[in-house]
Amino acid sequence: MKPIINDHKCGASQSACTAIKICPVEAISYIEVDEPITDRNVNCKSAPATGSSSCGCDCDCDSSNSENPCGGSPYSRIVIDYEKCTECGICAQECCGTAIDMV
């Protein structure tokens, strides 16, 4: 099973993404793209609390604006390099916004 990122659930913040930080083979990274995701749901306050903020991803969502609480932009993406990925599933377990599914 390989990890798939749901861009509509992912806040895509480079500094807050726990999956980038936890991946043992550094297969997950942050990129900026030309095409925005206009209907992205980044209301991280609905995610389980596991970190210092209510969403659990250690971002400053409790004081950020409601449109983009995790600090990502509609042009940002968290991506997986499947050539590096070992399909261990750690990223799906640790994703602060539950945006990664093992499929």
Topology:
Blueprint: E1 3-5, H1 18-22, E2 28-32, E3 76-80, H2 90-94, E4 100-102
Antiparallel strand pairs: 1-4, 2-3
Quick structural gist:
10% of the residues lie in helices and 16% in strands. The chain has two helices and four strands.
Portion of residues within helices: under 10%
Main pleated sheet: 2 strands, antiparallel
Mean pLDDT, as a whole number?
78
* Cα separation of the termini: 5 Å
The general outline is globular
What topology, given as strand order, has the largest sheet?
Answer: 1-4
CATH architecture: 2-Layer Sandwich
CATH top level label: Alpha Beta
Q: Structural class of the secondary structure composition?
A: mainly beta
Tell me the CATH topology. Answer: Alpha-Beta Plaits
What does this entry look like structurally?
- With about 100 residues, this protein is mainly β.
- The protein has a single domain, classed as Alpha-Beta Plaits, CATH 3.30.70.
- It has 2 helices and 4 strands; from the N terminus they run βαββαβ.
- Strands 1-4 form a two-stranded antiparallel sheet. Strands 2-3 form a two-stranded antiparallel sheet.
Protein traits:
two-stranded antiparallel ribbon; single chain; 4 strands; mainly beta; two-stranded antiparallel sheet; 103 residues; 2 helices; Alpha-Beta Plaits; globular
